[in-house]
Amino acid sequence: MGVLLLFHMWREAHIHQMIEEEVEVPHLPTSFDGAMILYVSDTHKRKLKQNDLANVKNKVDWVLIGGDVAEKGISWSLVRHNMKILSNIAPSFTVYGNHDKRAGTAQLARILRESDVKLLQDNVEYLQRGNDRLSLIGIDYRSKQGDVLLQQIGNRLCKIAIVHDPLQALRLEENADLILSGHTHGGQLVLPFFGPVFLRKAYRPVSNGWYSLKRSPEDVHQEGKMLVSRGYGTNHLPLRLGCPAEMHIITLRVPAEKALTEKQP
Fold it and tell me: Which of 2, 33, 141, 235 minimizes the number of CB atoms within 10 Å of its CB?
């Protein structure tokens, strides 16, 4: 019985699960309706397989990476392999996670440059589609510059942000239209009725899935959404329970009410 359980936990940690979802993004320009993102977070020591991602290459417009692509003691050749596979799919962007910082950012930054993965370290990249553009903001782990960046952009453009830690994302006072996060691994080991075994209490309300960024029904300015990914790799033990590994293909959609308004003469 114990061997079967271990095999099941190992399999959950190593399956290739691609979650495909559509999300309505406030302030999304019409030209971006239907644009697709491959979102990958927390790969850690797990090796990406080119065959698993072959069908994605001609499907998505950008690859966004939620951090923790490395960890202390990792083989840098593995990180280079993973980053090159992702950057070969589509233009790729990442932020640092907590394990990336511990692994050594000088070496990691060099690998990212050589792999054509753009590091967004408290800066903004503008994505173009047709005659429209939106802002892609990468907020560094534990940085206090997130609100400054979001405020500088203001309401001129749709704002998509990559923030490794969801609690850091929730502390932002300025609004974003879409935040992509990770860090939690969904708890990695999740027991029925009890929940995540090792996940800190503060993270349990945002362990994984989609969350509204609206802080209250009266707050009309904070209406964005946040995705917290369970991640693709594992932390410490290469095992998962009740919390399978995942990647995401996210199709961006103009909110229905906005699309209806724009169609009216």
Answer: 2
